[in-house]
Amino acid sequence: MTKPTLRPDERIDQLYSQDIQIIQSPEVFAFSLDAVLLAAFAKLPARTTSRTVDLCAGNGAVGLFMSHQTKGQIAEVELQPRLADMARRSIALNGLDDHMTVYQGDLAQVNQWIPKDSVDVVTCNPPYFEDLPDSQKNPNQYLAIARHEITTNLATIVATTSGLLKMNGKAYFVHRPDRLLQLLTLMGQHRLAPKRIRLVYPKPGKEANMVLVEAIKDGKPGGLRFPAPLTVYDATGNYQAEVKRLLYG
């Protein structure tokens, strides 16, 4: 385990449930609950020959939080050099250098590093908001790129995901419910059959604000399942049992 050099704005946080440490910075990026939920929703093959790719990896949170599931390789693809550097240092901090690799660059060019049709699992926590002329963006460019489709979009992400996956490989996405129909339409255009959809609610009585989706490449149509919804907080503002377990063990 390598002790990292931290920049002045960086700190080390911990996902206690898995004893994973991660370098964060409120100036450029800090993971939120969606990364933890996506990592828990995804099912990775345990075997050493398996290959998983996390697109839009940010500071590496999803890949790090999934790492206990597999002895195989996990690749993280992140466009922004600063975030890719944070991910690399977090991987070293957790002693996972043999297990995880960060590729810094545009996910649309991912096949320069990872061959087509070679991956067992692809995960993605993409930018949630379309880049519309009137959309309000964070003045911080790091955060704007993480939240808005400035450098990529959902169509590119879904096409890239499908291209990476082997036949019967699995894709896992977290997104906003108001874009679920668009996500499912794009998946249908790119040989990805949805198999599991789980809605996430912030607290009782509120509308869902996240959706988790599992798909299989070239999967048979039908067989779509809707697991019990997840509610993050109870009425008094405390984490519900499932979320508490994912965060603290």
Structure notes:
There is one protein chain. The chain has 249 residues and is an alpha/beta fold. It is 26% helix and 25% strand. It is built from seven helices and ten strands. The chain has an eight-stranded mixed β-sheet. β4 (73-78), α3 and β5 form a beta-alpha-beta unit. The mean pLDDT is 92.
Helices and strands in order, then pairings?
Blueprint: E1 11-15, E2 20-24, H1 33-41, E3 51-55, H2 61-66, E4 73-78, H3 81-93, E5 100-104, E6 119-124, H4 141-147, H5 154-164, E7 165-175, H6 180-189, E8 192-201, E9 210-217, E10 230-231, H7 241-248
Parallel strand pairs: 3-4, 3-6, 4-5, 6-7, 8-10
Antiparallel strand pairs: 1-2, 7-9, 8-9
Helix pairs in contact: 5-6
